[in-house]
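Summary of Year 1 activities. Much of the first year was spent building the evaluation harness for sequence design. The harness presents a backbone, in tokenized form, and records the residue chosen at every position. We chose the following record to illustrate the format because it has been used consistently in internal testing since the harness was completed.
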């Protein structure tokens, strides 16, 4: 059984699924409204897909929800797939300050 690509993808997928179910709509209904294939929509709901911004906006529009609601709180490297190196602006600033002038 496939696993979610990341914690962020899993949470986004759960939110999409909850919104769809609350509307009493099928995956096929929302996929059609969003202009996408139902298989791809299902992958998003299961957290298996890495959705691009336009897809998220299309899905949010079909669900009649602000995309920000679907994306709220998805912040931080713990939400992303493991990488060999994560580097943030804070890391960059700290490294710059640590260098002798």
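For this record, the design step produced the sequence shown next.
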């Amino acid at each position: 059984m496939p696993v979610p690509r990341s914690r962020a993808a899993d949470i986004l997928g759960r939110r999409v699924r909850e919104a769809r179910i609350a509307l009493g709509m099928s995956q096929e209904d929302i996929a059609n409204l969003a202009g996408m294939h139902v298989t791809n929509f299902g992958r998003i709901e299961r957290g298996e897909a890495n959705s691009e911004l336009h897809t998220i906006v299309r899905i949010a529009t079909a669900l009649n929800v602000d995309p920000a609601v679907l994306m709220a709180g998805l912040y931080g490297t713990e939400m992303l797939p493991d990488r060999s190196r994560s580097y943030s602006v804070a890391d960059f600033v700290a490294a710059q300050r640590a260098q002798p002038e």
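The CA atoms of residues 31 and 38 lie 5 Å apart. Quantitative recovery figures across the full test set are reported in Table 2.
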